[in-house]
Amino acid sequence: MLRDLNEVDIKSLINSDTTPIKEIQKFSCHTQAVERCVKLVTEASNKVCGHEAGDGYIRATLKSRSVIHNFFKRSDFKCVVDIEKKKHNKPKNPTLEKSL
User: Could you tell me the pTM of the whole model?
Assistant: First the structure.
């Protein structure tokens, strides 16, 4: 609601004696989609710390849900992240990696 106002405008509204007339946008706040998002944001805040980490967690969860709508058996499951790519990036001999 305040993102369209700069800091000077906000301070002048606070210091003025009149009540500002500002049109408040209507948002649907009692829908299933909003409730799902609230649940997801709450879950993200419990799992990770920080704005960027929370954003990444939410985006990864939504991407996973878009790929996997429902699965009932293991053969239906698909990984969003390419696990093979991660395996190839790991050093083959960790003790050699430490000595370098």
Answer: 0.46
